[in-house]
Amino acid sequence: MRSISESISAVWRRPGVLAAVAALLAIAVGGFARAHGIAGDDQEFLLRSSGPMVGPFLYLGAKHMVTGYDHLLFLAGVIFFLYRLKDVALYVTLFAIGHSVTLLLGVLGGLHVNSYIVDAIIGLSVVYKAFENLGGFRTLGVQPNTKAAVLIFGFFHGFGLATKLQDLAISRDGLVINMVSFNVGVEIGQLIALSLMLIAFNLWRTSGGFFKHAYGANVALMTAGFVLFGYQLTGYFVT
Known about the structure:
Elements: H1 4-12, H2 17-31, H3 40-48, H4 54-66, H5 69-79, H6 85-109, H7 115-133, H8 136-140, H9 146-166, H10 175-206, H11 210-238
């Protein structure tokens, strides 16, 4: 029987593992300041905005999702081994319901949560999905309800969106229609990102190298999730 150190070494020698981990860590480390963040001109616009502004909030919601790498990492993990469009639609819909409910509940209902804790859980959502894709739960002899897990983690992703909007103290004038517009924009952004992901996955699957590198890609996903978790947890304890 191989020792634990030998098993770990074998994992890291698999084709594509190191490259995939390096790429995802570069994305994660480079994007920490932008995770859910609304800054620069977008922040100034939100601080000045007053009254219903459907178009701008649609745009901001879509932009926020397309550039929200932590959401996209989780979404990539969710669809990684989904081959039928109806399965993709089901899981993405559950995710959308989850983050829509808590985004609107957080901003419109005034429900406040600690942003560091929420973002740490979002990091763990990436870890969870990668671990599931690697067959980790089967090894442990358990099988979580995958649909319920995606919905529950969707709730946390929505709170992650809400906390950053709450920090800006957006005007209450037109808030309901603006937040609904922002949420619709988030869903539009998710559909755009999902379409690009599905194209990329389909090309990868037909290239013949999908199963050869799938293990390494999910190890990379898990590593990035742990880095996100550690970064946010550190922020919680030092602030």
